[in-house]
């Protein structure tokens, strides 16, 4: 792979591009807008976690009851994850990632 080094001379401001940031829009953003964006981001994160948990379970070809028994997590917890009511904790996220990448080894270890 070829590496190209570029040096930007900031003394030539006419050559500098404005970039992709619309400063007028940034300045017009209110605290309420920021709070709304944070809430939307958190909701999207919960939806992503729910879809990931469901995808891992389906890739293993297990029902929710079978999956909960195999990974030693209650059925209600699995349902809450997949419905987006709760998100997996740190250890549960790690287990789901391992099940996603190396399902045979993970299930054998459990």
Written account of the structure:
This protein is mainly α and 110 residues long. It is built from six helices and no strands. The protein has helices at residues 23-28, 31-60, 64-71, 75-83, 90-101, 103-109. The protein is flat and about 65 Å long.
CATH topology: 434 Repressor (Amino-terminal Domain)
Number of strands: 0
* CATH domain class name: Mainly Alpha
Q: Helix/strand/pairing class, anyone?
A: mainly alpha
**Number of helices, counting only DSSP H or I runs of 4 residues or more:** 6
Secondary structure layout plus pairing:
Layout: H1 23-28, H2 31-60, H3 64-71, H4 75-83, H5 90-101, H6 103-109
Helix pairs in contact: 2-4, 2-5, 3-4, 5-6
Provide key terms for this protein:
flat, mainly alpha, 434 Repressor (Amino-terminal Domain), 110 residues
Short précis:
The protein has 110 residues and is mostly helical. The chain has helices spanning 23-28, 31-60, 64-71, 75-83, 90-101, 103-109.
């Amino acid at each position: 792979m070829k590496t190209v080094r570029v040096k930007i001379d900031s003394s030539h401001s006419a050559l500098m591009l404005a970039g992709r940031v619309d400063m007028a829009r940034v300045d017009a953003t209110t605290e309420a807008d920021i709070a709304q964006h944070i809430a939307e981001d958190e909701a999207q994160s919960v939806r992503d976690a729910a879809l990931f948990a469901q995808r891992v379970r389906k890739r293993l070809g297990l029902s929710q009851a079978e999956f909960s028994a195999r990974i030693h997590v209650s059925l209600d917890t699995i349902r809450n994850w997949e419905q987006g009511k709760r998100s997996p904790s740190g250890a549960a996220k790690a287990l789901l990632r391992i099940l996603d990448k190396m399902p045979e080894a993970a299930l054998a270890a459990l």
